[in-house]
Design a protein that fits this description.
6 helices
Length: 158
């Protein structure tokens, strides 16, 4: 029975690492490559087409990665609570991960839904204001997610 628990724990850690890799990689690609490239497009119809195509491909992957990351993180915090409390590095990792996942969840689920409702209602002024208020969220997800990722890799190889 104990062997099964260890195997399941290892599988959950593996899935957590894969989901974290997807989350940080996709955020990095969108922030550092795709966003600046799309902003160079001058034709608004072309920009809208590219944005819609990106949303259709990126959103399900990011949403799935966020949900999987949250589920596995909840298990790992529960299973490793004593380690988190005893190791300062693990407290920083856990805090960075919690901040990154909270921001990612709010950006990809709450604010995206709110922006879609404003867009559907034709409230462009309110949408622009909300976009200005939330533009810092993705870069923060990237920073805190990368911190948690690097500390996790470092801690597992100590």
């Amino acid at each position: 029975m104990n062997d099964i628990v260890l195997v399941m724990d290892s599988i959950i850690v593996f899935v957590h690492i894969i989901a974290g890799t997807v989350l940080v990689s996709m955020s990095s690609i969108m922030q550092l490559i795709v966003g600046p490239a799309v902003s160079l497009l001058t034709d608004s119809n072309q920009k809208k087409l590219v944005t819609e195509k990106l949303k259709k491909r990126r959103v399900p992957v990011m949403d799935g990665a966020i949900i999987i990351q949250i589920m596995t993180a909840m298990y790992l915090v529960h299973a490793r609570w004593n380690m988190i409390l005893s190791e300062p590095v693990m407290r920083v990792k856990a805090l960075s991960g919690i901040i990154a996942l909270s921001l990612a969840f709010s950006a990809h689920f709450y604010f995206r839904n709110k922006k879609n409702k404003l867009m559907t209602a034709g409230k462009t002024a309110e949408l622009k204001t909300l976009n200005e208020k939330t533009r810092f969220i993705e870069p923060l997800v990237l920073v805190f997610g990368a911190i948690a990722y690097v500390i996790g890799i470092y801690f597992n190889h100590m």
